[in-house]
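@channel sequence for tomorrow's demo:
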Amino acid sequence: MAGNFDLNQPLMGAGLESPADEEGVHVSFSQLIAEQIGESPDGFELQQLQRALNDEDRDYVGELGSAFEYPGRGLNDMEGEDDDGGETDPQDGLPWSSATLKILSSMPSRTIGRSRGAILSQYYNKTLQLRRRGQSRSSLRDFSRSSRPTIRGYGMEVDTTDGPESEMKKKKERLVNNLQNLSVGERLKMLRGMPVSVAEKKELRRLTLQKDKPPPSSSKIPCCSQLKFYIIIAARHSWYSWLSFLHSLQPWQFLFKRIGGRFGTGVLSYFQFLKTLLLFNVFLFLVTFAFLVLPQAMHPTELPVGVRTFSGLELISGAGLFTDTVMYYGYYSNSTLQKSCAREHNASASTDHDCVSERLSYNMPLAYFFTIGMSFFITCIILVYSMSKSFGRSFRIDKSYSILAMKVFSSWDFRVIKKSSVELMSQNNCTQLREILAEVVQKKEKNGGCQALWRLMVHGLAWAICIGGTAGCVISVYFFSEYMHQDLQRTSRQTNTHPLLKEASLLALPALVSLLNLLLPSLFSLAAWMEEYHSPSVRTYVALGRNLMLKVSVLAVLCYHWLGRVAANPSDINLMCWETFVGQELYRFLIMDFIFTLLNTLFGELLWRLFSRNVLRRSRNPAFDIARNVLDLIYAQTLAWIGVLFSPLLPAVQILKLLLLFYVKVTSVMMNCQVPRRPYRVSQMTTIFITLLCFPSFLGASVCVTYTMWSIKPSSSCGPFRGLRTMFQAGKRWVQELEKNNPDLSVLARVHAYLVENPFFLFVGAGIFLIVIYFYSQVVDGQRKVIELLQEHIEEEGAHKKYLISKLQNMHESKKRIPRRLRSQDSGC
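structure tokens (generated this afternoon):
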């Protein structure tokens, strides 16, 4: 099979049969065996064995294990290997009788596929039933027993001849006639599934096509048919070219192949996750820009008197010139945006009624409320769908041995002819093979009692260090944020404070948090070095858990600072619009996090590589820390989701940040980082990333935004919700006005009161989502267990066959000893 092998590709896409057909094959084999034994009272195979036991005196053949390990070997392959008709196992030297081997050769798994006559008869019946029933696919269990291939009639001996030549020709002609009457798709599918050589398939295809050709007198095709044929071919080529063009438009495909081929799936999963976050932010930006930013920009708000100059500090602080723009919540109007009439009023030309009818209105408070709410709702649906789909792909049964075989024999794409692409594909396949082989040869470590106790103490000490460091970080952020809040209270009472100095002082808290997020993961890496994890994947998962603990704790303290201190008492720090201040804070945190990420890339990767090579004289480069970089992305995305309520253009800032970060990280990884010393396959890494993005990140951001809209009072002098008790009242007021103007829509008001105003339905909806996720995960887990049971059943079936054949061999040995004893007694007498 020449094609790209994708572990995530469905089985049907790979051309494999469905489990239902596998079950039919299993049932048909069982019925076939029962048919062979049931029609003769003593059993045909046992009769053959009894004859062999009575005829032979000394007959030693090879061991059963070799027959199972090399199922392609038959009796013909073993003839002539021993002069006395037997073969001895090279490892154990245990002989097996030829009668036992004859029974092995007569099993359905050995006989089906060897006889061309049986194959032609089987597929003749298949094509005949397809013609009669008109179905596109059929299972083996749909056929009668007479249409199934049988080992009776072809002899017990494995022979290269398939019967008289005339009989073979008749069977082939009947099969070709039936194939001719099938559709092109069914014919190709039937030929592809036949267990014969490629040459015979080509011969059958050639005969079928020859019969399809019309006689020479009618070989002329009408012009209309030719035109129709050329149109269909052109449309098909255009469609394939369009699909290829769309595939080429996917960003960073070549870079992904380079990274995956050199560093493996672990590092590649980080960049794929970054691309996923970029798509989420693009969606959020398009929604907010279309429904909030663009309408407000078309109807600009009157700004207060006073000109602000651009100082350059706004790019980091987000304040100054950016304050009174569409960047922040405070700029948006609380009225219905309307477009006035094109002409002026005059007594002779128009009336007030005509002018009002020509106006275009846009309710900005209602649009702001529903845009934020629907964007979060759609994002939640996409996240849940992505997570469930990722669960189904990664938590399946994929044994390394089977994946290794498929990767070796089915992963090369012979359509690739460009030299650079061939080298890239070869490197990618080699890296994936190394990862699978590392998983195959991985051994579970066995520790004694003292060693296990020692490792437990080391793990406990490492976790105590990590938890203590996280607690110290959280306490530092809490008290420093309180200090900064008190400093804002003091500076708000002073009138001689320079604006630039005040803006610069606001960068202290984001700088401290970003510095702690930069330094503390190094402590976690030191703790992991103490623990000495043998599995790189386990080490990555532990690092993810520790970094997640740090990020969640810091974000919880920051949300309390913004919503519990700033929003609760905005007058203490002389704020006219606390929503704009919180939006600026979130902008500063995003920018500062990006700056410290660049510093980590510069000092932690580039300078360390130069220092290691030039000073330490070692060629060892730093490793790419997947856990730290992924949690940095999740942390920044959480800030963007929280900040979209206070700064509708914050997703645009996040998009620019992710684009720059991608190219910086790609360059740093290719130049500064080393290939993992121990390759490992991370089949579940992407699923864990999406899960962390959904539950701690998006769920926490949704709780903060919902709490702000339902419980906190908006500013009374700015924003679209000024004058309201909560942001949520914007929807309630619109429904009341709608019911007042049109009493027929009173049902809508009741629906809004029960479904939107009542938080019970919100919790019910969230609970339904959680139940769906839990149910889907349980279904996947149940499927995994069923597959495991089926695999164990197959192994037990093989063990049962070995046991039965061992019993047959013992019976043969015991019957051989009796004539020898009689001969020895006769010679003694």
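heads up for whoever presents: The chain has 29 helices and two strands.
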